[in-house]
Structures are given as structure tokens and as C-alpha cells.
Write a structure and sequence with these properties.
Layout (H helix, E strand, L loop, with lengths): L15 E4 L44 H17 L6 H14 L6 E3 L1 H11 L2 E4 L2 E6 L2 E7 L4 H4 L7 E5 L2 E2 L5 H8 L6 E7 L7 E6 L1 E4 L3 E7 L2 E6 L6 H16 L6 E5 L8 H9 L6 E7 L6 E4 L11 E5 L6 H11 L4 E4 L7 E7 L5 E10 L15 E2 L28 H6 L8 H4 L1 H16 L12 H6 L28
Helix pairs in contact: 6-7, 7-8
């Protein structure tokens, strides 16, 4: 699959970017030859190195015959191509070809693309708000960005764009498709999509916009249970997430938060330091991520600080096929540290690091320089994060039940001994999210189950005799004679949810 930086999408979101012109990550990197105590040594065959042999500083002689062939191609184009092409265009195309031939994420950035890349990492860019790529020469949606024309129009990951304003994308280059989708804010664009499971092509009309994309939003799902959505990783994402957590704590009141859902679905990624700092909000020690490349500067590792925003609150992380790059760093770190249960479907599998290197003329190159690894030594490249609990996207429809006869309907039924007390209890309001978002509803149910499991004691039967209660010989629900304190440690709760 091949991707480009484009003004209509957060291209850097799918790229784990280390911009040379931006500030260095705030977390100090350890020397390249050191390995954290709690991280495995990376085997030589999977350490992300090129295997080209020798140090990168070793100079090899240029292949003279190939250089001569390149010069001949250049001259033939100048002499015989149907249109006159200037030298600058040919040289820029040669640079673009060299980079794009390496892997799907390395490419040449002309002035517009270079400027757009920096605008997008700051969260402001123009277009329809969509990440696109090519797979098998087909133009495919990687991920729509929240609260943009694309997401509001219902575009979904893996939608194939077969027409742009009536023009077929068959055989169209990615750059040409991007140019067609760019335009002035307020202008219209029509897309024709093919979607898996749909019986016919889908026609979508959008209006281009100037997009100021907030990367974080939050709300309460149910009393005591918070929801934190991160749509992309920008420069200020960690601070926005910290503020959102503080707001959720305030809304939860004196009882505090009983659980939090971190939603990373359709998050195409973003900046490395943004991902590290977000993961650090939920971890109080240990490795977050490390990278390995050919250059010593590419070998880095990032540790969590002791300070954490949610030290003990149970967490569920939601991921899907649109979760990529920096989103996979966060999910992988929380999963490896057993800090959260990861729920959903397998992530995208983009585990390479791109360094943005400026050139002298307001242009630059984006070059893959390393692979990143989770704290447990897993490379996500082309593999993705496997969820602990697999839940496919769907919609829950509740059956309408008819009249049911229960004990309370029978004539002369006995009253509950504590009926009046039970009537005084306020019922927990139901949340409609299970019907609107099945995966989110399952995440909330999982958090509630974890909290039940972590309760310090087991319920006592109310049918114990007064003598038993006086002597302290109360029965337990387990029926095996265990005391009310014989419960599993709370730290084991996430492991028990593994499929």
C-alpha cells in the first residue's frame, strides 16, 4: 500500500513522524547501545536493521554503469518525449521515484506537501478530512477523521473510491487522485464508493472545508464510567487528554471513576512524542516504546514517568482496522503492561518510523528510518495489535418481550423482607450506547464486570440463620466453604478477560 502527504488528510497521522524541524520528544532517549532492564533483547533478524552489511557510515562506490544508464534515460526524455520537460521537473520526479520505490511511506515532499505536513501535525489543514492510500492499484480510504466532511458523510475504513466527480480512479496515480480531491473550502466534490457488503456503489456528496481538528473529546457513558476519544496524535494531544481526564474525574464526583474507555478506533496515528506522552498518562513506570534502525540516532527508547493521571482505574482500549501507527503504540504499551484490556478488531499494522528531513529549498523528504517495538518486544509492522477481546462492529437490537409472569404477579405472594428498602433505591440509568455502538457497549459491560470481580468481598446469603450471623459463620455464594475474603487479586482481572 502507498500513501502520500495530502492537504485533504492528516497524512502524518498514518506516519510515525520524527520531524527534524520540530522539537525533540520530551522524553529523554537512552544511548543506542543500552537496553532497558524490562525489555527483551531484539533478535538480530527482527531488529529493524536493513541487513545491508556494515555500518551506515561506510562509503560504497557509486555503480557507474547505473549512473550512466540514468543519464541516458534523462537525455532520451529531453530529446524524444512528446512534450518539452524542464530539467528541474525531471530531477524532482527522479527523487520522488527513488523514495516511493523504497516502501509505502517514504516520499518526496514538494513545497506544498512540506508545508501541509507541518500544518497537519499542528491540527489545522484544508480538505475533506480523509486518509487515503492505494492497495492493488485501487484508491482506498484508510480512515476518516472525526468531525470532518468525510466522517459526517459516513465514509468508512477500506471503502474503495472508484470515481471522483465522475472520473474513474482506475489506473489513476495517488498524486492525481489527491489533486482531484483538493479544492477551495465550500466547493463540492462527489465520490463513488465500493463498500464490502453493499449491493451497489455508494454515491457521496461532500463540501470541502477548512478543518480545525480537535484530537480529544470526552463524556460520561454512565455514572462513574468515562469515555475518552483520541482521533489523532498532535502536538497538544497529551495535554488535551490530561484536561479531559480531570474533567471526567470532576463529573464522577466523590466516588471517583470506576472505569474509562479509551477509544482509538479509526485513529490513523500522528506524532511519536504525542503517543508516548498519552501512554505515559496511564503508566507509572516501564518502557513505552523503543525503535531500532541503521543509524545510532534511530535507536531510541521512551520510559514512563512515575506521575500518572489514572493510577488504579480499570481501562478498556478500543481499536479496529483504522487504528494505526501512534495509536498502535499506545494500545500495545497498555496491553503489554497489563494496564488495560484491548477490545475490538485487529489494528492496521503500521510499525515504521518516518523522519522528515528538510532540504534547502522549502522541500523535504520523508524517509523510513526505523521500526518501533512494544515494551514486550513485538514489532507491529504488517502484523497489527491483536485485541484481548475480539468484538466485531455491529448493532445490538433488543427483542421486545411480551407479558411475563413473575413471582410478584402471583396472588398471595410473600413480600420481600426488605422490600421497602429496595424500593427506595435509585435505579442505575440505562445507557443507549450498546444499541448505537456495539463495541463501545461491550467495553462498558467489560468495565462493569471488572469492577464486580474486584470487589473486596463476596455477597452473603440473606437466608443465614440468626445463630449463624451471631457466630460469624455466614455462607458464601461460592458454596465451597470459602470465607468472604477469599477473592482473586484485582490485578488478575484483565487477564481473565482474555479469549
Amino acid at each position: 500500500m502507498r500513501h502520500v502527504a495530502l492537504s485533504l488528510a492528516l497524512s502524518s497521522a498514518l506516519l510515525l513522524t520524527l520531524p527534524a524541524t520540530a522539537a525533540e520528544p520530551t522524553t529523554d532517549a537512552a544511548p543506542a547501545d543500552s537496553t532497558p532492564d524490562n525489555s527483551p533483547l531484539v533478535p538480530a533478524e527482527t531488529d529493524g536493521r536493513s541487513g545491508a552489511g556494515g555500518d551506515a557510515s561506510e562509503q560504497s562506490s557509486l555503480p557507474l554503469e547505473d549512473i550512466q544508464a540514468l543519464a541516458q534515460v534523462f537525455e532520451r526524455i529531453k530529446q524524444a518525449y512528446v512534450d518539452d520537460v524542464d530539467d528541474k521537473t525531471l530531477l524532482r520526479n527522479a527523487m520522488r521515484g527513488m523514495l516511493e520505490g523504497l516502501d509505502p511511506h517514504s516520499n518526496y515532499l514538494d513545497e506544498d506537501a512540506f508545508r501541509t505536513l507541518h500544518e497537519m501535525t499542528e491540527g489545522a489543514f484544508g480538505g475533506i478530512g480523509i486518509e487515503v492510500g492505494q492497495e492493488d492499484n485501487q484508491l482506498m480510504v484508510i480512515s476518516p477523521i472525526d468531525d470532518t466532511p468525510a466522517s459526517k458523510a459516513g465514509l468508512q475504513p477500506r471503502d474503495l473510491i472508484i470515481e471522483i466527480d465522475g472520473k474513474s480512479t482506475d489506473g489513476m496515480s495517488l498524486e492525481e487522485a489527491v489533486d482531484l480531491m483538493r479544492g477551495d473550502p465550500g466547493s463540492k466534490i462527489d465520490l463513488t464508493l465500493l463498500r464490502e457488503g453493499a449491493d451497489a456503489p455508494i454515491e457521496v456528496s461532500l463540501e470541502r472545508a477548512n478543518i480545525q481538528s480537535a484530537s480529544v473529546n470526552s463524556r460520561m457513558l454512565s455514572p462513574g464510567y468515562g469515555y475518552l476519544r483520541i482521533s489523532q496524535f498532535q502536538e497538544n494531544t497529551a495535554q488535551e487528554a490530561s484536561d479531559a481526564i480531570a474533567s471526567l474525574k470532576k463529573q464522577a464526583g466523590d466516588n471517583g471513576l470506576s472505569g474509562v474507555v479509551l477509544d482509538l478506533r479509526n485513529n490513523p496515528g500522528g506524532l511519536l512524542d504525542g503517543a508516548v506522552n498519552v501512554a505515559d498518562l496511564f503508566l507509572d513506570h516501564g518502557l513505552v516504546v523503543y525503535t531500532r534502525g541503521r543509524l545510532k540516532d534511530s535507536d531510541m527508547q521512551f520510559e514512563a514517568n512515575a506521575e500518572t493521571a489514572l493510577p488504579d482505574t480499570p481501562m478498556v482500549v478500543l481499536i479496529n482496522g483504522g487504528s494505526a501507527s501512534a495509536a498502535e503504540i499506545v494500545a500495545g504499551a497498555l496491553q503489554d503492561h497489563h494496564r488495560a484490556v484491548v477490545l475490538g478488531t485487529e489494528s492496521f499494522g503500521k510499525g515504521s518510523v518516518q523522519s522528515v528531513m528538510p532540504l534547502d529549498d522549502n522541500t523535504g523528504i520523508k524517509l523510513t528510518t526505523a521500526l518501533y517495538y512494544t515494551p514486550g518486544g513485538r514489532s507491529i509492522q504488517a502484523e497489527g495489535i491483536e485485541p484481548d477481546v475480539t468484538v466485531q462492529r455491529g448493532r445490538l437490537e433488543l427483542e421486545k418481550s411480551g407479558f411475563e409472569i413473575r413471582e410478584a404477579n402471583l396472588r398471595g405472594h410473600l413480600q420481600n423482607a426488605r422490600g421497602e428498602q429496595e424500593d427506595d433505591k435509585a435505579a442505575l440509568p440505562d445507557s443507549p450506547i450498546a444499541a448505537d455502538d456495539y463495541q463501545l457497549g461491550e467495553a462498558l459491560n467489560l468495565l462493569r464486570g471488572i469492577n464486580v470481580f474486584q470487589q473486596p468481598g463476596m455477597r452473603q446469603h440473606d437466608n443465614a440463620s440468626p445463630d449463624d450471623r451471631a457466630s460469624g459463620n455466614t455462607l458464601t455464594d461460592s458454596g465451597n466453604g470459602a470465607s468472604k475474603n477469599d477473592t482473586a487479586p484485582s490485578d488478575d482481572a484483565p487477564d481473565d478477560t482474555n479469549p
